[in-house]
What we know:
By secondary structure, the protein is an alpha+beta fold. It has a domain at 36-61 and 87-206: 3-Layer(aba) Sandwich (Trna Endonuclease, Chain: A, domain 1). The chain has helices at residues 20-34, 38-51, 121-132, 154-167, 174-180, 194-206, and strands at 2-4, 10-11, 56-59, 64-73, 76-84, 92-96, 99-108, 113-115, 136-143, 148-153, 171-173, 182-184. Strand 6 and strand 7 form a beta hairpin. The chain is globular and about 60 Å long.
Amino acid sequence: MAFHYPNGTPYNNHEAPKSKKQVKNQKSIQFGKRGMDFEEEINKTNAFYLARTIAVIHKKPTPVQIVKVDYPSRSAAVIKEAYFRQASTTDYNGVYEGYYLDFEAKETKNKTSFPLKNFHQHQIDHIQQCMAQKGICFVLLWFSSLNKCFFFSGEELVACWLEQESSGKKSLPLTLIEKKGIEIHVGIAPRIPYLDAVKQHIQSNKGVAINDN
């Protein structure tokens, strides 16, 4: 199946099809190195929060326009070509204790910095627009080689993004993330307890007490 971006650019158009065995082996290698599937663990964490009525957070669906479908049999349909209808904004959004949350999840194998190329201008614009409406925006940064996770506020991210335009900096140093962000210690249930960092962020920046869950 061929996917295309909104401007028509093919998405992985020249990548040769992989067998089921190749895909399985590739996943084993990738996830083995990372130690976990970051996005999947966030999804499980959101399910944990939802089941306990702590917060309602969901991953945003990616809008896709299907343009070509083959029917090899009456009971089967195969999508051959599709387009992303629009550029994605951020990965997740929802409500926690009356606050609107909107955030992105990113990961890197780097050990000393987080590349800013992992973000895009339309995502920064979206974060700024949400913050202008008093939404709480942030990114969850996963350093897979270090097994470290950080909450980094939208305010700090936007400031660094604007700074790179004048300074030419291409990444967020780990030392800066450790100083300006909040480390999230990976647990069991929930696996990525990011709401602890959100609570700390709200309390420190708005002086508002949040109920303990």
